[in-house]
Task: inverse folding
């Protein structure tokens, strides 16, 4: 249960973009993930609109796949919406972000601990909590175990 001194914090459903350091040999998952951005929502919304959030997650996972497999399309989208026509800059930007989008984006509580330390500078009471209190892994797990992600990457 969250401390009354802290505002209601969202539950992290999945990380949108993570900084990667190293890779697990067995799973090919990053060994250390630092959150850059994450999708979070209230527990109430998670309860009341789970289907909507699952649909959003499916679309996001499809976007990750497109980012990883359709570089030219993504460079064109980046150029259009960022209003950049410098190909070298677009290539460099793509190169910086491509490794950060992992195919199966389970929230990584180890990476969240660094965020806790940052928040603790102004809200030390955050350290009374565990990262797991703010994470709902069921969204990614359901899509992973249900075969959605495997099917997405197998092209079937």
Result:
């Amino acid at each position: 249960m969250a401390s009354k001194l802290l505002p209601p914090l969202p539950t992290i459903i999945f990380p949108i973009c993570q900084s990667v350091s190293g890779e697990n040999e067995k799973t090919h998952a990053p060994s250390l993930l630092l959150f850059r951005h994450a999708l979070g929502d209230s527990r109430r919304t998670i309860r009341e609109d789970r289907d909507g959030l699952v649909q959003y997650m499916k679309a996001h996972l499809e976007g990750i796949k497109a980012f990883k497999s359709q570089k030219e399309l993504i460079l064109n989208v980046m150029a259009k919406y960022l209003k950049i026509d410098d190909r070298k800059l677009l290539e460099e930007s793509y190169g910086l972000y491509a490794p950060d989008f992992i195919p199966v984006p389970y929230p990584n509580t180890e990476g969240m601990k660094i965020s806790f330390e940052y928040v603790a500078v102004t809200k030390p009471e955050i350290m009374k909590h565990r990262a797991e209190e703010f994470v709902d892994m069921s969204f990614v797990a359901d899509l992973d175990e249900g075969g959605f992600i495997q099917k997405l990457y197998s092209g079937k």
In short: The two ends are 42 Å apart (CA to CA). Helices lie at 43-48, 50-69, 71-82, 87-97, 109-120, 138-145, 148-154. The chain has one domain: 11-149. Confidence is low (pLDDT under 50) at residues 1-11, 13-34.
